[in-house]
Design brief:
Largest sheet: 5 strands, antiparallel
Number of strands: 5
Number of helices: 2
Distance between the termini: 44 Å
Strand content: 25-35%
Radius of gyration: 14 Å
Length: about 120
């Protein structure tokens, strides 16, 4: 098995800029969507996030910057998580070089997260 090449400096900078845009959007919308705490980190090609909610369920996401695919999960007790079937594609963060484009992609990622979370709210 061959180790994958890490992002280039330009790609890493683009991913960091998107992480900042995602955090800013979530911070801006936190009160209206019931988010208490936001954690976002860049790990190689992945942008991983966790959102702790005021009133369940807590959610997470993992975006693969190479493919533009984002998966969503429900955060359970401890370190456990339950990955959902919901997947959002075409989130081309490496191509989003302008602030407006990063925000548009961040909105798409957030929309996917809220869509994945909606059925979980109904079960409570």
């Amino acid at each position: 098995m061959t180790a994958e090449a890490p992002p280039t400096q330009h790609q890493a900078t683009a991913l960091d800029a998107f992480a900042d845009a995602m955090y800013d959007l979530l911070h801006e919308r936190a009160q209206s969507i019931g988010i208490l705490d936001i954690s976002i980190e860049v790990n190689g090609w992945h942008l991983d996030g966790e959102l702790l909610a005021t009133d369940g369920p807590d959610m997470g996401f993992s975006l693969d910057a190479r493919t533009g695919e984002c998966r969503y999960c429900e955060l359970l007790d401890g370190e456990r998580e339950r990955w959902l079937d919901d997947v959002r594609g075409d989130l081309l963060v490496l191509d989003a070089e302008a602030d407006e484009l990063r925000r548009a992609v961040a909105l798409e990622l957030l929309d996917g997260l809220l869509t994945a979370r909606r059925p979980l709210l109904k079960r409570d």
